[in-house]
Amino acid sequence: MNLDPAYAAYVWTAYGLSAGVLVLLTADTLLHARRWRREAENRREDRP
Amino acid sequence: MIAALANPARFMSVSRVLAPALGLASLVLFAIGLRLAFAAPPDYQQGDTVKIMFVHVPAAWMGLFAYACLGAASFAGLVWRHALADAAAKAAAPLGAAFTALALATGSLWGQPMWGTWWVWDARLTSVLVLLLLYLGYLALHAAIEDEPKAARAAAVLALVGLINLPIVKFSVDWWNTLHQPASVFRAQGSALDPAFRPALYVMGLAYLTAFLSLWLVRIRAEVWRRRARAPARVRAASTARVIDPGPAAA
Asked: What is the interface pTM, i.e. ipTM, of the complex?
Protein backbone atom coordinates (compact mmCIF):
# COMPACT_ATOMS: atom_id res chain seq x y z
CA MET A 1 0.00 0.00 0.00
CA ASN A 2 1.54 3.27 -1.11
CA LEU A 3 0.97 6.30 1.05
CA ASP A 4 1.99 9.84 0.22
CA PRO A 5 5.54 10.05 1.68
CA ALA A 6 4.71 13.41 3.26
CA TYR A 7 2.04 11.80 5.43
CA ALA A 8 3.11 8.16 5.68
CA ALA A 9 4.90 8.59 9.02
CA TYR A 10 1.80 10.10 10.64
CA VAL A 11 -0.56 7.44 9.29
CA TRP A 12 1.67 4.48 10.18
CA THR A 13 2.36 5.90 13.65
CA ALA A 14 -1.36 6.33 14.29
CA TYR A 15 -2.10 2.76 13.22
CA GLY A 16 0.90 1.37 15.10
CA LEU A 17 -0.09 3.21 18.27
CA SER A 18 -3.69 2.00 17.97
CA ALA A 19 -2.59 -1.60 17.45
CA GLY A 20 -0.14 -1.37 20.35
CA VAL A 21 -2.73 0.04 22.74
CA LEU A 22 -5.34 -2.56 21.78
CA VAL A 23 -2.86 -5.42 22.16
CA LEU A 24 -1.65 -4.15 25.55
CA LEU A 25 -5.22 -3.59 26.72
CA THR A 26 -6.15 -7.13 25.71
CA ALA A 27 -3.07 -8.67 27.32
CA ASP A 28 -3.57 -6.72 30.55
CA THR A 29 -7.25 -7.66 30.69
CA LEU A 30 -6.63 -11.36 30.11
CA LEU A 31 -3.72 -11.55 32.59
CA HIS A 32 -5.75 -9.65 35.19
CA ALA A 33 -8.67 -12.07 34.75
CA ARG A 34 -6.43 -15.12 34.84
CA ARG A 35 -4.76 -13.99 38.07
CA TRP A 36 -8.00 -13.36 39.96
CA ARG A 37 -9.65 -16.52 38.64
CA ARG A 38 -6.70 -18.54 39.93
CA GLU A 39 -6.82 -16.80 43.32
CA ALA A 40 -10.58 -17.30 43.64
CA GLU A 41 -10.21 -20.99 42.83
CA ASN A 42 -7.34 -21.35 45.33
CA ARG A 43 -9.45 -19.72 48.06
CA ARG A 44 -12.32 -22.06 47.32
CA GLU A 45 -9.97 -25.06 47.70
CA ASP A 46 -8.63 -23.68 51.02
CA ARG A 47 -12.09 -23.54 52.55
CA PRO A 48 -12.78 -26.35 55.10
CA MET B 1 -31.97 -8.60 29.74
CA ILE B 2 -29.92 -6.38 32.03
CA ALA B 3 -32.05 -7.41 35.01
CA ALA B 4 -31.49 -11.06 34.08
CA LEU B 5 -27.72 -10.53 33.84
CA ALA B 6 -27.72 -8.79 37.24
CA ASN B 7 -27.66 -12.24 38.80
CA PRO B 8 -23.90 -12.82 39.21
CA ALA B 9 -24.05 -16.56 38.52
CA ARG B 10 -26.11 -15.99 35.37
CA PHE B 11 -23.80 -13.18 34.30
CA MET B 12 -20.73 -15.41 34.70
CA SER B 13 -22.26 -18.23 32.66
CA VAL B 14 -23.48 -15.91 29.86
CA SER B 15 -20.27 -13.89 29.71
CA ARG B 16 -18.18 -17.06 29.56
CA VAL B 17 -19.53 -17.54 26.03
CA LEU B 18 -20.29 -13.96 25.04
CA ALA B 19 -16.87 -12.46 25.82
CA PRO B 20 -14.82 -14.71 23.53
CA ALA B 21 -17.54 -14.54 20.84
CA LEU B 22 -17.34 -10.74 20.84
CA GLY B 23 -13.55 -10.94 20.83
CA LEU B 24 -13.60 -13.18 17.78
CA ALA B 25 -16.11 -10.88 16.07
CA SER B 26 -13.86 -7.90 16.72
CA LEU B 27 -10.87 -9.66 15.16
CA VAL B 28 -12.86 -10.44 12.02
CA LEU B 29 -14.19 -6.87 11.87
CA PHE B 30 -10.69 -5.43 12.32
CA ALA B 31 -9.42 -7.56 9.44
CA ILE B 32 -12.22 -6.35 7.17
CA GLY B 33 -12.07 -2.77 8.44
CA LEU B 34 -8.32 -2.42 7.97
CA ARG B 35 -8.60 -3.73 4.45
CA LEU B 36 -11.32 -1.19 3.70
CA ALA B 37 -9.36 1.57 5.41
CA PHE B 38 -6.27 1.10 3.31
CA ALA B 39 -8.32 0.70 0.15
CA ALA B 40 -10.15 4.00 0.77
CA PRO B 41 -9.12 6.78 -1.61
CA PRO B 42 -7.12 9.79 -0.41
CA ASP B 43 -9.11 12.89 0.46
CA TYR B 44 -8.94 15.76 -2.01
CA GLN B 45 -7.74 18.14 0.75
CA GLN B 46 -6.21 15.89 3.41
CA GLY B 47 -4.60 13.29 1.19
CA ASP B 48 -3.72 10.03 2.90
CA THR B 49 -3.99 11.50 6.41
CA VAL B 50 -7.73 10.91 6.09
CA LYS B 51 -6.94 7.27 6.85
CA ILE B 52 -6.18 8.30 10.43
CA MET B 53 -9.92 8.92 10.72
CA PHE B 54 -10.51 5.16 10.74
CA VAL B 55 -8.61 4.71 14.03
CA HIS B 56 -9.13 8.15 15.57
CA VAL B 57 -12.92 8.45 15.28
CA PRO B 58 -13.77 4.92 16.57
CA ALA B 59 -11.41 5.45 19.52
CA ALA B 60 -13.20 8.72 20.33
CA TRP B 61 -16.59 7.01 20.01
CA MET B 62 -15.49 4.31 22.43
CA GLY B 63 -14.13 6.87 24.89
CA LEU B 64 -17.58 8.45 25.06
CA PHE B 65 -19.49 5.17 24.98
CA ALA B 66 -17.39 3.67 27.76
CA TYR B 67 -18.11 6.70 29.93
CA ALA B 68 -21.84 6.34 29.26
CA CYS B 69 -21.55 2.69 30.37
CA LEU B 70 -19.58 3.79 33.42
CA GLY B 71 -22.25 6.36 34.25
CA ALA B 72 -25.13 3.91 33.82
CA ALA B 73 -23.40 1.26 35.94
CA SER B 74 -22.56 3.87 38.61
CA PHE B 75 -26.20 4.96 38.72
CA ALA B 76 -27.33 1.35 39.10
CA GLY B 77 -24.75 0.80 41.83
CA LEU B 78 -25.87 3.86 43.78
CA VAL B 79 -29.60 3.26 43.42
CA TRP B 80 -29.81 -0.53 43.77
CA ARG B 81 -26.55 -1.09 45.72
CA HIS B 82 -25.78 -3.96 43.38
CA ALA B 83 -22.19 -5.22 43.61
CA LEU B 84 -22.20 -6.32 39.98
CA ALA B 85 -23.07 -2.76 38.91
CA ASP B 86 -20.10 -1.48 40.92
CA ALA B 87 -17.90 -4.11 39.27
CA ALA B 88 -19.15 -3.08 35.82
CA ALA B 89 -18.41 0.59 36.51
CA LYS B 90 -14.91 -0.13 37.82
CA ALA B 91 -14.20 -2.40 34.85
CA ALA B 92 -15.20 0.20 32.25
CA ALA B 93 -12.92 2.95 33.56
CA PRO B 94 -9.46 1.75 32.43
CA LEU B 95 -10.84 0.77 29.02
CA GLY B 96 -12.48 4.15 28.53
CA ALA B 97 -9.32 5.94 29.65
CA ALA B 98 -7.24 3.97 27.13
CA PHE B 99 -9.62 4.71 24.24
CA THR B 100 -9.80 8.40 25.15
CA ALA B 101 -6.01 8.69 25.37
CA LEU B 102 -5.75 6.92 22.01
CA ALA B 103 -8.26 9.34 20.49
CA LEU B 104 -6.19 12.30 21.73
CA ALA B 105 -2.90 10.79 20.49
CA THR B 106 -4.21 9.85 17.04
CA GLY B 107 -5.96 13.20 16.85
CA SER B 108 -2.62 14.94 17.42
CA LEU B 109 -1.07 12.82 14.68
CA TRP B 110 -3.84 13.97 12.37
CA GLY B 111 -3.75 17.58 13.55
CA GLN B 112 -0.02 18.15 13.06
CA PRO B 113 0.03 17.68 9.26
CA MET B 114 -3.42 19.24 8.78
CA TRP B 115 -3.52 22.12 11.26
CA GLY B 116 0.23 22.59 11.68
CA THR B 117 -0.01 21.91 15.43
CA TRP B 118 -0.05 18.88 17.76
CA TRP B 119 -2.49 20.54 20.15
CA VAL B 120 -4.86 23.47 20.35
CA TRP B 121 -7.05 24.50 23.27
CA ASP B 122 -10.27 24.40 21.32
CA ALA B 123 -13.56 23.17 22.79
CA ARG B 124 -13.51 19.65 21.36
CA LEU B 125 -9.94 18.78 22.27
CA THR B 126 -10.19 20.39 25.71
CA SER B 127 -13.46 18.64 26.57
CA VAL B 128 -12.00 15.27 25.52
CA LEU B 129 -8.97 15.98 27.71
CA VAL B 130 -11.40 16.69 30.56
CA LEU B 131 -12.99 13.30 29.81
CA LEU B 132 -9.60 11.62 30.19
CA LEU B 133 -9.00 13.44 33.48
CA LEU B 134 -12.43 12.28 34.71
CA TYR B 135 -11.46 8.68 33.97
CA LEU B 136 -8.13 9.08 35.75
CA GLY B 137 -9.83 10.81 38.66
CA TYR B 138 -12.35 7.98 38.92
CA LEU B 139 -9.57 5.37 39.05
CA ALA B 140 -7.56 7.41 41.55
CA LEU B 141 -10.58 7.84 43.82
CA HIS B 142 -11.28 4.13 43.77
CA ALA B 143 -7.68 3.36 44.67
CA ALA B 144 -7.53 6.00 47.42
CA ILE B 145 -10.39 4.64 49.55
CA GLU B 146 -9.72 1.30 51.18
CA ASP B 147 -13.30 0.44 52.07
CA GLU B 148 -14.65 -0.94 48.79
CA PRO B 149 -18.36 -0.06 49.10
CA LYS B 150 -17.40 3.51 50.14
CA ALA B 151 -14.92 3.74 47.26
CA ALA B 152 -17.57 2.55 44.82
CA ARG B 153 -20.11 5.10 46.09
CA ALA B 154 -17.66 8.03 46.00
CA ALA B 155 -16.42 7.09 42.54
CA ALA B 156 -19.99 6.64 41.35
CA VAL B 157 -20.88 10.18 42.44
CA LEU B 158 -17.85 11.51 40.54
CA ALA B 159 -18.85 9.49 37.48
CA LEU B 160 -22.40 10.85 37.53
CA VAL B 161 -21.22 14.45 37.90
CA GLY B 162 -18.87 13.89 34.97
CA LEU B 163 -21.72 12.75 32.71
CA ILE B 164 -22.39 16.41 31.92
CA ASN B 165 -19.16 16.32 29.90
CA LEU B 166 -20.60 13.91 27.33
CA PRO B 167 -23.01 16.38 25.66
CA ILE B 168 -20.32 19.05 26.00
CA VAL B 169 -17.90 16.89 24.01
CA LYS B 170 -20.56 16.02 21.44
CA PHE B 171 -21.89 19.53 20.86
CA SER B 172 -18.68 21.50 21.50
CA VAL B 173 -18.08 21.81 17.76
CA ASP B 174 -21.56 23.38 17.37
CA TRP B 175 -21.59 25.62 20.45
CA TRP B 176 -18.11 27.12 20.07
CA ASN B 177 -15.89 28.30 17.26
CA THR B 178 -13.50 25.34 17.05
CA LEU B 179 -10.63 24.24 14.87
CA HIS B 180 -11.96 20.67 15.06
CA GLN B 181 -14.35 19.92 12.25
CA PRO B 182 -18.11 19.76 12.94
CA ALA B 183 -19.98 16.47 13.27
CA SER B 184 -20.02 14.48 10.04
CA VAL B 185 -21.63 11.17 10.96
CA PHE B 186 -24.14 11.51 13.82
CA ARG B 187 -26.09 14.55 12.67
CA ALA B 188 -29.81 15.31 12.57
CA GLN B 189 -29.52 15.98 8.83
CA GLY B 190 -27.82 12.63 8.18
CA SER B 191 -24.20 11.77 7.52
CA ALA B 192 -22.08 14.30 5.65
CA LEU B 193 -19.24 11.83 5.30
CA ASP B 194 -18.30 10.97 1.73
CA PRO B 195 -19.74 7.53 0.84
CA ALA B 196 -16.24 6.36 -0.14
CA PHE B 197 -15.20 6.51 3.53
CA ARG B 198 -18.35 5.21 5.20
CA PRO B 199 -17.82 1.40 4.93
CA ALA B 200 -14.34 1.55 6.46
CA LEU B 201 -15.41 3.89 9.27
CA TYR B 202 -18.54 1.92 10.15
CA VAL B 203 -16.75 -1.45 10.12
CA MET B 204 -13.87 -0.10 12.22
CA GLY B 205 -16.42 1.46 14.56
CA LEU B 206 -18.06 -1.94 15.00
CA ALA B 207 -14.65 -3.56 15.48
CA TYR B 208 -13.82 -1.13 18.29
CA LEU B 209 -17.26 -1.60 19.85
CA THR B 210 -17.07 -5.39 19.91
CA ALA B 211 -13.51 -5.19 21.25
CA PHE B 212 -14.62 -2.87 24.06
CA LEU B 213 -17.63 -5.05 24.95
CA SER B 214 -15.50 -8.20 25.00
CA LEU B 215 -12.80 -6.64 27.18
CA TRP B 216 -15.42 -5.08 29.46
CA LEU B 217 -17.08 -8.46 30.08
CA VAL B 218 -13.71 -10.06 30.84
CA ARG B 219 -12.84 -7.25 33.27
CA ILE B 220 -16.19 -7.58 35.05
CA ARG B 221 -15.54 -11.32 35.38
CA ALA B 222 -12.08 -10.53 36.80
CA GLU B 223 -13.66 -8.16 39.31
CA VAL B 224 -16.16 -10.84 40.40
CA TRP B 225 -13.28 -13.32 40.91
CA ARG B 226 -11.29 -10.68 42.78
CA ARG B 227 -14.17 -10.16 45.22
CA ARG B 228 -14.57 -13.90 45.67
CA ALA B 229 -10.82 -14.26 46.25
CA ARG B 230 -10.83 -11.48 48.86
CA ALA B 231 -14.09 -12.39 50.62
CA PRO B 232 -12.89 -15.54 52.44
CA ALA B 233 -9.81 -13.65 53.80
CA ARG B 234 -12.08 -10.92 55.26
CA VAL B 235 -14.38 -13.51 56.85
CA ARG B 236 -11.35 -15.40 58.18
CA ALA B 237 -9.81 -12.17 59.56
CA ALA B 238 -13.07 -11.26 61.32
CA SER B 239 -13.28 -14.75 62.88
CA THR B 240 -9.63 -14.53 64.02
CA ALA B 241 -10.22 -11.09 65.54
CA ARG B 242 -13.11 -12.45 67.66
CA VAL B 243 -10.84 -15.21 69.03
CA ILE B 244 -8.03 -12.74 69.89
CA ASP B 245 -10.33 -10.10 71.33
CA PRO B 246 -13.73 -11.51 72.26
CA GLY B 247 -14.90 -8.06 73.49
CA PRO B 248 -16.15 -6.70 76.84
CA ALA B 249 -19.14 -9.06 77.06
CA ALA B 250 -16.81 -11.99 77.51
CA ALA B 251 -14.92 -10.36 80.46
From this structure: 0.91
